[in-house]
Write a structure and sequence with these properties.
Layout lengths: L2 E9 L1 E2 L2 E2 L2 H21 L5 E14 L2 E15 L5 H17 L6 E5 L6 H5 L10 H23 L6 H22 L2
Helix pairs in contact: 1-2
Length: 184
Amino acid sequence: MSTTSITVSFGFNIGQNTMSNEKQVNFIEDVYSAVTRLLASHHANYQVVQAGRVMGRWQDGLNLIEEPSYTLTVAVPSGTVNGTMVSYLRYRLGGLAKVYDQDAIALSVYTPQFCTEEDNYNGVPVSMDTDLSMASEVLHEPLRSAVENILEFWVDDDCAVNEALHLIQQAVRNNVADWDFMNK
C-alpha cells in the first residue's frame, strides 16, 4: 500500500534566544495535537514514523544559523489527505507560529520514495538523448506531473474547482517564495 507523509518541522529560537524547556514541550505537544487531531477528526489511520529533536541549520548570507528544532513525520494511507485538510493544517500551524513567536513552521505533504536493494540491482540510471521535437515535452513534464499530483491531492467531492485553483495558486506562490529564499 502506498503512503502519504506529513512532516512538520519547527525551531525553538525567538530572535537570538532559545525558548525555555517548558515552552518547547508545550510547542511540541501543540503541534503534535494539531496534526493528530486533524487526522483523527477525519477518521484517518495514521502512524507516527518519526518524532524528535534535531539541530536545524541554514545559511543566512555568510552566517550559518543553528537552531534547536523538532521534526514530526506521520504516515497515512495514500488518498487520505485532501486539500481541505492541508488548508486547515496550514491555518492551525500558522496560529501556533504566532503563539510561539516563530517566523514559520515548515509543513511538507508528500509521497515518499522507498529505495530498496532492488533499486541498486537495476544499475546506474541512463540518460536518454531526445531530439528537439521532444525537448518541449520533456521540459514541461515535471510541471505537468506536479500539477496533476496537486489536482489528484486536492480535488475531491468536497472541493470545488475554484477552491482547487486557489489552493494551486497558493502552493505555487509558496513554492516560488521558498525557492527564492533558498537561492538567496
